[in-house]
Amino acid sequence: MSARPTIVLVHGFWGGAAHWTKVIIELARMGHADLRAVEMPLTSLADDAERTRKMVKQQAGQVLLVGHSYGGAVITEAGDLPNVVGLVYIAAFAPDAGESPGGISQQIPPAAIANLAPDSDGYLWINYDRFHESFCQDLGPDEALAMSVAQKAPLASTFGDTITAPAWKVKPSWYQLSTDDRMIHPDNQYRMAERMKPRRILTLDASHASLASRAGEVAALIDEAAKAVAKA
């Protein structure tokens, strides 16, 4: 059996590394011992990509980068390191050079865009009483409440930060598309996924929080990618 890569999980907006909890447990049950989850500041794409690069550089061998939501933009920007051998996108942005998450969202606005509100310091929040219906409508109310209260707001300006050289053009990729996503329009997801020409597109009838509501299937896609890129 070939060596498995370290799997580095990259969260998106409105959450932290703990959003990967269920996926981490599933991957560990599949035998993945080398798991890491980045905790990003969500202050700019440059800051978040640099934090991710630092974690990747700390790993001794191959790395499979996995990004949820805005984390897809981060792995697109940070995935150029030589030990990154693959990219997995989970209901995620996969911008091309010169594109930003905000620009992509403006092309086909998601259903819940009206439920975002900036505060006086420039951070962008999902309205607490709209979080469940916007982000994770296929989770139970208790889990949605915890996610809402613990949400981690990004600086709104981060939405406009653009990609320089997209790693998906040179690294193998996989994509999970959520058909009931209200944070990144499914049509935008489909367009981004198709142009990447990924090894596989996994389509799930899921919310934006597919990493929590469909953790088993998301972990299985990551496991598939890890096996495909493993050293011979």
From TrEMBL:
Q: Which SUPFAM superfamilies match?
A: alpha/beta-Hydrolases (SSF53474)
- The yes or no answer to whether the keyword Transferase is present is no
Say if the entry is tagged with keyword Secreted.
Answer: no
Span of domain AB hydrolase-1: 7-220
Q: What does the UniProt keyword field contain?
A: Hydrolase
Q: Which GO molecular function annotation, any one, does this entry have?
A: hydrolase activity
Alphabetized PANTHER family for the sequence: AB HYDROLASE-1 DOMAIN-CONTAINING PROTEIN-RELATED, ESTERASE_LIPASE_THIOESTERASE DOMAIN-CONTAINING PROTEIN
Name of the protein: Alpha/beta hydrolase
Q: Which organism is it from?
A: Bosea vestrisii
Q: What is the lineage of its organism?
A: Bacteria, Pseudomonadati, Pseudomonadota, Alphaproteobacteria, Hyphomicrobiales
